[in-house]
Amino acid sequence: MNTSKRLNGIGEYYFSQKLRDIEALNNAGKSVINLGIGSPDLPPHPSVIATLQEAAARPDTHAYQSYKGAAVLRSAISNWYQKWYGVSLDPQTEILPLMGSKEGILHICMTYLNEGDNVLVPNPGYPTYTSAVKLAGGSCIDYELLEVNNYFPDFEKLETLDLSKTKLWFVNYPHMPTGQSASIEQFEKMIQFAQKHQLLIVHDNPYSFILNEKPLSLLSIADAKNCVVELNSLSKSHNMAGWRVGMLCGAKERIEEVLRFKSNMDSGMFLPVQLAAAKALELGADWHDSLNAVYRKRRDVVFELLKLLNCQYSKNQSGLFVWAAASETDLDVAHQYGMGGALSDRLLNESGIFITPGGIFGTAGNGFVRISLCATEEKLDEAINRIKQKK
Predict the structure, then answer these.
(1) Phi and psi angles of residue 250, each rounded to the nearest 5 degrees, phi first
(2) CA-based Rg of the chain, rounded to a whole angstrom?
(3) ω into residue 122 within 30 of 0, thus cis?
(4) Which of 4, 74, 127, 120 minimizes the C-alpha distance to 259?
(5) pTM over 0.85
(6) d(CA 13, CA 188)
(7) 257-283 pLDDT, tens per residue?
(8) Which residue blocks in 167-239 are alpha helix, DSSP H?
């Protein structure tokens, strides 16, 4: 049986394959320390778990649910956006709950793209942007995000591109994998560019609460709803990655358009999960402060680890990761992911430590590595000790 043409050039997701490799190494007695994946290791708030348990025990919560999400969850999302971002959203028409924002990326591409349509995709950037565009029949136009520009778009270069067939523009701030945050002024420039070129910006915003003093939404900019849809998630901000709860926010017309596709793909989200998510969105600053206190301590240990590896990094990063330039001692031009890939392989083979090569996020990441903060200080200390033993 031959696979469909839409899978041509689409490989298995990098981390799907890598987790199997790590499992095989562990089965062989390697005991790999996984510092590569941003899956929060801390639990949700106890009240969130209690809400799930109580709702799941009821006999009336197990039926099919609304394709556009429970009213209580949409209302909670609306209140959350108003409280933290200063964005007013109509819970009836401008919010679409998702089973994780990752599915929303594909939903958006399938809703708007035809064969021959182009999409602006950041390099480096989340690999799912590229695969979703290709699966929908579109073509990617990479735009490089360089350290010299603080990982912001170079609008002069973008203006030189032929954007006549470009419909979507993926942006993501705080940026993954580099941890760069955006300012209101930079968001305003994005809006102006999108309006000029009649682009729909897809802003992927799951990291705004992690080690970031002022959460921002692109929808907070004047007239943003005319050219922006925003994806958000409880995976990182509320330690609910495995629960698969996300959201799409935007103008009524955009929500209705995406719902036309999404409603043919699933039959609604389990109601107890929605009720628990609504509870999570009620949590206050104390919750986010407590999480960030943990991540801040872990980040300091990661900085120490990177110093041992002679990597260069900025201390001004947001999100669940630390992005760093690999040392010249790991120069390996033959490696698929350059110096970052060489360092990642060396650490895994010599010390049983997995860190992500920056090149999986695009060619602009080839000289970099990314380390996750989703590991205990004890695990990070163990990784440091292993590295010292090899020096």
Answers:
(1) 170, -170
(2) 21
(3) no
(4) 74
(5) yes
(6) 33
(7) 999 999 999 989 999 999 999 999 999
(8) 184-197
